[in-house]
Amino acid sequence: MRDVAHNSRSRPFTLVACTNCREAGDSQVMDRLRHAVRSCHHGVMVATECLGRLLDCHPTSGLYAAVQPCTVDRRPMGTPVLLGPIVTEADAESVGAWLLAGMPRDGMLRVGLRAAPAPAPAPAPRRLPHLN
After folding, report:
1. Pairing of strands 43-48, 13-18
2. Helices 89-100 and 27-39 meet at what angle, rounded to 10?
3. In the chain, which residue ranges form alpha helices assigned H by DSSP?
4. Which distant-in-sequence residues (6+ apart) come within 8 Å of 58 by Cβ?
5. Mean per-residue pLDDT for 80-85?
6. How do residues 9-52 score in pLDDT, each as one tens digit?
């Protein structure tokens, strides 16, 4: 059992958190996420500006983040998981437990903590050729 826990904590990832679109009360949420990432052998947390092209952030509704599984040398591997809103410390603890478990796809991370992707931009109008 100990090897299983060690291996799951060794699953590399990068957690990218939007620090631009959050409320002041989110500092406890960030602290919980930082603690979880520090507990993972190959976890890295990046605080960045708005992830608007990736996430549909809302400043009044909590913290938004993306988790990118990667190799030990930080090469992206797989599809990023979009997270948010992470509103309460309990939400952050749930995300942290999911990270510590190795990001399983078994429903451990509840649906309400998975963020919707940013809306796709409207397609550019097509130019029609003039025939005269």
Report:
1. parallel
2. 10
3. 2-9, 27-39, 89-100
4. 21, 85
5. 92
6. 568 999 999 887 666 557 899 999 999 999 998 999 998 887 77
Q: Give the separation between CA 87 and CA 110, rounded to whole angstroms.
A: 13
- In the chain, the DSSP E strands lie at 13-18, 43-48, 63-69, 81-86
Quickly count: other Cβ atoms within 10 Å of residue 7's Cβ.
11
| Whole-Å CA distances, 53 to 21, 24, 50, 102, 118 | 13, 23, 8, 26, 6
In sequence order, the β-bridge partners of residue 10 are none
At 87-105, the pLDDT tens digits run 999 999 999 999 999 999 8
Distance CA 31, CA 101 (A): 19
Residue 132 · residue 67 · CB < 8 Å: no
Side chain identity, residue 34: R
Dig out the tokens for 45 from the structure.
């947390």
Query: Which residue type is seen at 110?
Result: R
